[in-house]
Fold this protein.
Amino acid sequence: MEKRSIKNGELSLLGFGLMRLPCKNGSNEIDTAHATAMVDLALDQGINYFDTAYMYHEGNSESFAGEALSRHKRGSYNLATKMPLMAVKDYADVDRIFNEQLKKCKTEYFDFYLLHNINHAHLPIAEQNKVYEQLKEKKKQGLIRHLGFSFHDRPELLRKVVDKYDWDFAQIQLNYLDWELQNAKEQYEVLTRKGIPVNVMEPVRGGTLAKLCDASVRIFSEADPKASPASWAIRYAASLPNVQVVLSGMTSLDQLKDNIATMSPFRPLSEQEYRVIEQALAAYRSSATVPCTSCRYCMDCPEGVEIPKNLAVYNNYQVALANKHPMGEFLFEMEYRLLEEKSQASSCVACGQCAARCPQQIDIPRWMDAIRELHGKLKSA
């Protein structure tokens, strides 16, 4: 497993994100047996960075991390979690939540700790409640080894954040689609110029870059028949010199094994391979999909709409259209009807609450309306 040197140790270049763990029978309940087997294999194969958060898996990811990782020697892994700024209502919440996280994760300290999802809405919460200052004190006490933040906003705000505070690392969304679409290139450069190491989240964009349109898949396959589409995305992020960890939110043993193979040994992309990615990306963009990563920051909808599932159904339809699939419309209708009626896009009242929370800055009400119209059109056809 490829490693990156840090102060007082080294990190596996591939990190295990505990955001999309396998669940039981399509529910949100973590399949602990399957997920624990994945953690054990990851450790056995040299992965030593595990990233969880207070909000992941409806609050259960940290508890799972505690149960699965505490079975192993504490020095064999680095544990990262985050202060949920969206849950901080007053100054005292920071200490309360932090102590709760220590207990849930069954640890006496966190190797890496982040202010979660700094953006234009959450930065004032951090400032008003002196979240950074409180966590800096915990670092002095040895409860935090490395203090950083995750970020979903514009480069202008990122510059403000890195100029105001002293950070050990930062976590940004970076992949070959968002390099331009979400200004990941400029964010990476801001951090690199500041000397702040980068942890990458969403390198495969929530699985989107592992399930490309047929034309994109053909381009990758012709360039390297043995490499999965996901491996190209992982290598893209890992090839950047200031990246110390590439986090993958893996859902199955197969995904884990594929990522391990990609990093063992790791081969940076060549100039020719960068051109292959550009060709595959151009083909994918023509499929007109919505850039949703299924992070679920938009949830819960007050009307009960399952926003990520609706967008996934729509994206599947768009990819089917791009591939000229003869059953595209039928599959859309079937998948849409599988959603409970209250969960369908037709229940959206365009309150806008979801769009304000979306890290991808997607105009969700507009897409819910588009899905509703598509359903009506196909239903009456």
